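Friendly challenge for the regulars: who can give me the structure tokens for this chain first? No prize, just bragging rights.
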Amino acid sequence: MKMRSARSLAGLLISAGDGWTLRLDYFGYHDDGKATADFSFDFDDVNFPIGARLDSSLNLDLYVANFSYNFIHSERARLGVGLGVHAAYIDVKISGKFNVAGTEIDLGSGNSDLLAPLPNLYVTGAYSFTDRFLVRGGAGGMSLTYGDWDGSLWFVDAFFEYWPFRHAGIGAGYRYLDADVEYDPGQKKETYDFTLPGPVLYVTAGF
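First reply, four minutes later:
Bragging rights claimed.
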């Protein structure tokens, strides 16, 4: 299989008085792939037989809002707990062609998309070694069933930041996210299972 992927990341941290913090994040993952079908399957009412040449695309947009309270809040350290929601928009497209006696037949294309709200509990913290070097991280998740939804979400991240300037810095770290989502309104069940581990590089600014 040949694949081409891209990732994007953005975030905003707002600190209020008395230890309250609001964090907004966006994470985008976009993947295109080409493969040959090893088995016959149906997708969005389109049948793809064995040997079909497949073109697929996956778009995952993750919108995160977390609200936390820091029960430890000093000049050097911060440690808190919070409640948030990960809204995952998943869009999958598959198209295919099949060769019959030297003639290429267009099988058509199928599409499936889903917006899955996944609430979570988490812990978050940061420690500043100096005015220029600090580490921050967090972890959390939740598994629950409500209405037509059955899902779980678990994540952990750790970052190291260097602030060479008063209001600007750079950071590097690692982020891991695992989500299982099942949506069953009665007519058709949709199941999504994705794991997104990987290093992160970013620039940051503070005011």
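The longest strand covers residues 103-128. The mean pLDDT is 85. Your move, everyone else.
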